[in-house]
Amino acid sequence: MAEVGRLATCDEGRLMYAWLWRVIPGGPAVKSATFLVLFLGIAALLFLFVFPYVDGLMPFDNVTVDR
Amino acid sequence: MTAHSWGDRVRTVARGIGELFVTVSVVLLLFVVYELWVTDLINQYKQRELTNALTAQWERGDDPIAPHSGDQFPKVDIGAGIALIRMPRLGDDYVRVIVEGTTREALDDGPGHYVSSALPGEVGNFAVAGHRGGKGSPFDDVDRLKAGDAIIIETRDSYFVYRVLGDVDSGDPTVPGVDGLVGRQIVDASQTTVVNPVPGEPGVAPHRRLLTLTTCQERYLSLERMIIHAELDGQAWPKSDGLPPAMRDA
Predict the structure, then answer these.
(1) Which of A21, B43, B86, B168 could form a disulfide with B148 if both were Cys (CB 3.0 to 4.6 A apart)?
(2) Domain that holds residue B129
(3) What's the ipTM?
(4) Taking the complete model, does pTM exceed 0.80, yes or no?
């Protein structure tokens, strides 16, 4: 039991996912749903803005002859 | 409490690092999904849009690459569709819209025409660059082209049937023909002379009607370029005569 108590204190508010889980309101089901929506939102931002930008910096597929 | 606090801190840092690794790997995984599949989907959509725009323009009687009066070179917006390319060797249904320009944005939408190179059917070298890994990979399989294979360019009024150079009897495109030009070669990325009017000979006036495709040699790590050279077979084939034989066979 002492072990469990220490795990709880060590996670408390310090780690991102544990912190999110704590601050998101509602029961486990609502929390999970909110997590999913957050994840999809961040994924959308990545696909729409971040990845196209990063892709431009990658040397993956240079196909032209140039200097 | 103080007896535990140092151990707790180490544990928190270790878990924080673990959490960071998990997060980063999920983001990297999503990036791989983006590169391998999403860019293809975006490209498919863009190609469909470009095809519709180009055929609509043709139907209006407007050819984007027809020489306008007074201008030696027509002015085409970078990224606009100019012609269709077919390579029966890569499949009967293989057709892509060639866009004007070789900027990254243009090439993401389709194979791109080197702006200062010749136009389809012209004396000189009609040079086109295209992706091989991702973005629809239009030139993914150009290494499968054999000597004598048709590369067909469709403009508003004509088909231009080019034939891959090399040894037509054996089909080997890496054997130079009598003219010294090969159908397929690997060059350094800096070797811009392959898209010159006379490939490999800068400043020499052309008399042949060539087509050159450039793409990357190694997918995803591209320090060298794969080059395909082809030459116009006969004359322009007017669309009013129906499909050229090279397309009817296919």
Answers:
(1) B168
(2) 35-249
(3) 0.77
(4) yes
